[in-house]
Give the backbone structure.
Amino acid sequence: MTHPDRPMGLLAWQWSLYPDGHRDAGNLVLHLVTVPIFMAGTVALAATPIVGPLGLLGLGAMGLAMAVQGRGHRREATAPMPFRGPFDVAARFFVEQWITFPRYLLSGELARSWRVARRRPLA
């Protein structure tokens, strides 16, 4: 999906901005903890037809992960780009949790950011 200010599409746009918004060690730790919570919440919500109302707890897990990550982003020198609306919030969060952050972790970029963050003096 492309947009005039995202001509390369959401995935490439988010990836191009990701390192600048994920440099703080505390925020990196929060993401390491909350991304699996968001994923588990997504799976639980999708399983609601099978497991019944218990699956709706997934919404709470997803909301918790989003709230904690929002607080973590306040620690960053570079603020996230503003959301365009509810669909943009949902699209960006799903892409970040399921694609961009795992890619950041598995590519070694998170480890590089972690090493740099640990060398910085605490503010």
Q: What stands out?
A: The mean pLDDT is 91. The CA atoms of residues 46 and 114 lie 33 Å apart.
